[in-house]
Design brief:
752 residues, Penicillin binding protein transpeptidase fold, 5-stranded mixed beta barrel, OB fold (Dihydrolipoamide Acetyltransferase, E2P), alpha+beta
C-alpha cells in the first residue's frame, strides 16, 4: 500500500511539475510575444513632456502663453513632503516598497472586474499609472475626440504591467514619482502638479498647505468632475478622504486631519488659467512663430519668447481704453441686456458663469444676475455673492430702475466695494461697449512694441484692430503732405491760400468742392497754422502743388504699405491704413528721420535656455534728419495751439496729430515724445458713426493723454530733465511773430 501511495505521489508530482513548466512556458511565451511591441523605456532618459511656451515682457514677467498641455516641469527637490504623502496615500501607499506592481491589488481588481462590482480607484500603482499615461497609444488605447478608450482589454493590462516593471528596473523611486507628478492631468487643461497648483490656488507647490495638497491628491482620478470649479462639494469630499488616508498611513495625525477638514477650500486661480495681459499682442506673436517654427514647437516645446512689452504701459492702455470706450458708449444711452434667464426658463438658483468661481474684485467688471428692484435699488447676485446698485450707480442712464432691468436679466456691473464676511458688494451698472478701439506704442529707437491693445475684449473678438483693420486715416495723413513740402523747400512760415476751391473729378463727374471742418476760410495762412489747425483746403492745395505722386512717395518711404491712390482726396485722409503702420511712420519724426520696423519679439529660447533666434532692430532712412526735426517741431505746434491743445496738461515735449473721418466713423490721435510713439484709434467694426461730435480730439485724444500720463510720470522720475528732440546742426531756430520756429539752413526768413 505504501509503495502504491509513493508511486501515486510521484506521479502527481511529475504531472504538477509538467503543468507548472507548461504554464511557465506559456507565460514566457506571452511575455515574449508582448515584449516586441513594448515601447523603448530608454526614451525616458530624455523625458521632455509638452510644456508651456511663454511670452515674457521687458521686465521678465509673463504676458502670454501657448500650450496644448499647460505644464510646468518640476524637480524632485521641489515636491514638498506633504504633497508627496498626500498623493501616495490616495494612489499608492506602498509605492516605496514594491517593484512597480502589487499582485494583491491586481488580483482584487480582477475579481472586481469579473464579478461586475465596479472599478476600484487606485488599484494601479503609481508606476503603472505613469506607464499608462506615457505610452497610451502603444499599450492599447485609442484616442477618441474627448477621451482615451481601452480597446485591448487584458492585453493592455499585461503590457502596462510589463512596462511598469521595466520603468522600475531602470529608474529610481524619486525619478518615477517626479515623472508622475509632471505627467498626470489635473483638469481644466492643467498637466502636472505645478500647473494644477497654479490653476486652483495660484501658487507654487512649494507653498501648498496640507488641505490644498490633499485636495489635489483627492481629485486625481476624475479631475474634470471633481474640480472645485465644477463641484465644490465633491472636491471637499475627496479632499477629506485623502486626509483620512494620510492619517491612516501615519503621514499626519488624526488631529491634523480633523483640523484640515474643517477648513474651506479657497480657490484663487481661474479655470482657464494663463496670463492675459496682452492677448492681441501674443496672438500676433503666435502667428509669426507658427509660420517660422511650426505649431508643434510653439505648443509643446516650452519656448521662451522675449519681447519689449512694457507691462505697466500695457496695463494702463487696457484700463484707459476700457474706461473711455464705456464713457463714449454711454452717450448713446442704455441698451437692454441680451439675456433674461426667466424668459429662457433657466433656474436662477443653479445658474453659474465661470467668472463667479472667484470672488468679485474691486473695480472689476463682472456679469451679475438681477434678483429684484426695491425702492430704486437693484439687487443682483454673482455666484455666492450678492450686490446692490443704488440710484447713483445707474444715474447715467437717466432712467428708473424698473424701466432699466427685469428679474433674470444678466447684466454687467462694476464692483465698487465688498464686505467679505457677509459676501456682499456694492456695484454700479455697466454695459459692454458697442464701439471698438485700439492702441499701439512703439519705442522710437528700437522699434520694439511696448504696448498693444487690439480691441475692447479679446474673448469677444480676436480680430486685432491695431494690426489688421484697414481704416480711413482722416487728418492723420496730413503730416505726410507737409513733410513732402518741407523736403522741397517750404517752411513753417510759407503762406498757403485757405479759400474755396473746386477740382475736376473726371469726365462727366461733378466738381469736387472740398470744405474745411468748420466751414470757414481764413485766406492766407502760414503752413504751421494750417497743420496745427488741421485745415483741409490748404492741405489739398499743397498736395496739388507738390503733385500726388510726391506725397504718396513720402508716405511709402515712411512705412505706409497699404495702397495709396494718387489722387487729391488722399491729402485729407481718404486712404486706408492700419494703426501700426501709421504709428510706425510717425516714429520717424521723433527719431531723426529713421523708422525702425516694428519688432514684436526680440529673442526665442528653447526650454534649456539656448538662443534659437536673436532679432535686431531693422532701421530705415525714411526722412532727412533736418526734415524730421522740423516736422516734429510743427507737430508740437498742434499741441501748443492746435487741435491737440488738451495734451498740454502733460507738460512734456510731445507732438502729434488728430484725425477724424466723414460722419465720425473713425477717430485718431497719433503722438510722440522723444522716446515713444503712441497711436490710438476709436470706431466701429461696421464703419458706422461713433456718435455726434466724436472727433479725434473728443474720442481718441483723451485716451492718448491718459495713457501717456503715467508714462510721463515714470520718465520724469527717471530723468534729471525732460528729454528733447535732437536738433541736426543744419537746423536753425528763429524767433518769429508766432514764436520760435525751426528752419533748415538756407530757408530761414531773410535768406533768398
Amino acid at each position: 500500500m505504501a509503495v502504491v501511495t509513493i508511486r501515486l505521489v510521484r506521479g502527481f508530482g511529475l504531472v504538477a511539475l509538467f503543468l507548472a513548466a507548461a504554464l511557465f512556458g506559456i507565460a514566457s511565451g506571452v511575455v515574449l510575444a508582448f515584449v516586441g511591441d513594448l515601447p523603448q523605456i530608454s526614451a525616458l532618459d530624455s523625458y521632455a513632456p509638452s510644456t508651456i511656451t511663454r511670452v515674457v515682457g521687458r521686465d521678465g514677467g509673463v504676458v502670454g502663453e501657448f500650450a496644448t498641455e499647460r505644464r510646468e516641469i518640476i524637480t524632485d527637490a521641489q515636491i514638498p513632503p506633504v504633497l508627496r504623502q498626500a498623493i501616495m496615500a490616495v494612489e499608492d501607499a506602498g509605492f516605496n516598497d514594491h517593484m512597480g506592481l502589487q499582485p494583491t491589488r491586481m488580483v482584487w481588481a480582477v475579481v472586481r472586474d469579473l464579478t461586475g462590482t465596479g472599478r476600484t480607484p487606485g488599484r494601479s500603482t503609481i508606476t503603472q499609472q505613469l506607464a499608462r499615461n506615457l505610452f497610451r497609444d502603444t499599450i492599447g488605447f485609442r484616442r477618441d475626440p474627448n477621451a482615451w478608450v481601452d480597446v485591448s482589454g487584458w492585453e493592455r493590462k499585461i503590457k502596462e504591467a510589463l512596462v511598469a516593471l521595466q520603468i522600475e528596473r531602470r529608474y529610481g523611486k524619486s525619478e518615477i514619482f517626479t515623472m508622475y507628478c509632471n505627467q498626470i492631468y489635473w483638469g481644466h487643461g492643467a498637466y502636472g502638479v505645478q500647473a494644477a497648483s497654479r490653476l486652483y490656488f495660484d501658487k507654487s507647490i512649494t507653498d501648498l498647505t496640507l488641505e490644498e495638497a490633499a485636495m489635489l491628491a483627492g481629485i486625481i482620478q476624475t479631475p474634470e468632475r471633481q474640480s472645485p470649479y465644477v463641484n465644490m462639494a465633491e472636491a471637499r469630499r475627496k479632499r477629506n478622504l485623502a486626509l483620512d488616508r494620510m492619517a491612516a498611513n501615519n503621514f499626519i495625525t488624526p488631529e491634523e486631519a480633523t483640523a484640515a477638514k474643517a477648513r474651506p477650500i479657497v480657490t484663487s486661480g481661474a479655470p482657464l488659467g494663463g496670463p492675459t495681459l496682452a492677448p492681441h499682442f501674443t496672438e500676433t506673436i503666435r502667428q509669426e512663430l507658427q509660420d517660422r517654427y511650426g505649431a508643434k514647437a510653439i505648443y509643446e516645446s516650452g519656448l521662451t519668447v522675449r519681447t519689449g512689452l512694457d507691462a505697466e504701459l500695457q496695463r494702463t492702455a487696457i484700463e484707459v481704453l476700457d474706461r473711455e470706450l464705456r464713457r463714449i458708449d454711454r452717450l448713446g444711452g442704455y441698451r437692454r441686456p441680451a439675456r433674461n434667464l426667466v424668459a429662457e426658463k433657466v433656474d436662477l438658483d443653479t445658474f453659474r458663469v465661470p467668472r463667479w468661481s472667484r470672488p468679485p474684485t474691486v473695480n472689476d467688471v463682472i456679469p451679475a444676475l438681477v434678483l429684484n428692484m426695491d425702492k430704486g435699488t437693484i439687487r443682483v447676485r454673482a455666484g455666492a455673492w450678492e450686490g446692490t446698485i443704488a440710484a447713483a450707480g445707474y444715474a447715467w442712464t437717466r432712467r428708473r430702475s424698473d424701466t432699466l432691468v427685469r428679474r433674470g436679466d444678466l447684466i454687467e456691473v462694476r464692483v465698487i466695494s465688498r464686505v467679505d464676511e457677509s459676501k456682499q458688494f456694492v456695484a454700479s451698472l455697466e454695459q459692454t461697449p458697442s464701439i471698438e478701439g485700439a492702441v499701439v506704442a512703439i519705442e522710437n529707437r528700437t522699434g520694439q512694441i511696448l504696448a498693444m491693445v487690439g480691441g475692447h475684449n479679446f474673448g469677444r473678438s480676436q480680430f486685432n484692430r491695431a494690426t489688421q483693420a484697414l481704416r480711413q486715416v482722416g487728418s492723420t495723413f496730413k503730416p505726410f503732405v507737409y513733410t513732402a513740402a518741407i523736403d522741397r523747400g517750404y517752411t513753417a512760415t510759407s503762406l498757403i491760400d485757405d479759400s474755396p476751391v473746386s477740382f475736376v473729378a473726371g469726365p462727366n463727374q461733378p466738381l469736387w468742392q472740398p470744405q474745411n471742418y468748420d466751414r470757414e476760410y481764413l485766406g492766407q495762412v502760414m503752413l504751421r497754422d494750417a497743420l496745427a489747425g488741421s485745415r483741409n483746403i490748404p492741405t489739398i492745395k499743397l498736395m496739388d502743388a507738390l503733385g500726388p505722386p510726391q506725397v504718396i512717395g513720402t508716405a511709402k518711404r515712411m512705412g505706409i504699405t497699404s495702397p495709396l491712390p494718387a489722387f487729391l482726396p488722399v491729402a485729407i485722409g481718404a486712404a486706408e491704413a492700419t494703426l501700426i503702420e501709421m504709428t510706425s511712420a510717425y516714429s520717424a519724426f521723433a527719431n531723426q528721420g529713421v523708422r525702425v520696423t516694428p519688432l514684436s519679439y526680440t529673442q526665442v529660447l528653447d526650454r534649456d535656455g539656448n538662443i534659437l533666434e536673436d532679432r535686431r532692430p531693422v532701421p530705415h532712412d525714411a526722412l532727412r534728419a533736418d526734415t524730421a526735426f522740423v516736422m516734429a517741431h510743427l507737430l508740437q505746434g498742434a499741441v501748443q495751439h492746435g487741435t491737440a491743445v488738451r495734451a498740454q496738461v502733460l507738460d512734456w515735449p510731445v507732438g502729434g496729430k488728430t484725425g477724424t473721418t466723414d460722419d465720425y466713423t473713425d477717430a485718431w490721435f497719433i503722438g510722440f515724445d522723444p522716446d515713444i510713439t503712441l497711436g490710438v484709434w476709436v470706431g466701429r467694426d461696421q464703419k458706422k458713426p461713433i456718435g455726434p461730435g466724436q472727433t479725434g480730439t473728443a474720442a481718441a485724444l483723451p485716451i492718448w493723454i491718459d495713457i501717456m500720463k503715467p508714462w510721463v510720470a515714470r520718465r520724469r522720475a527717471q530723468l534729471p530733465a525732460p528729454p528733447s528732440f535732437e536738433r541736426p546742426s543744419n537746423v536753425i531756430m528763429v524767433m518769429t511773430s508766432k514764436g520760435l520756429e525751426a528752419f533748415i539752413a538756407g530757408t530761414e526768413p531773410g535768406i533768398r
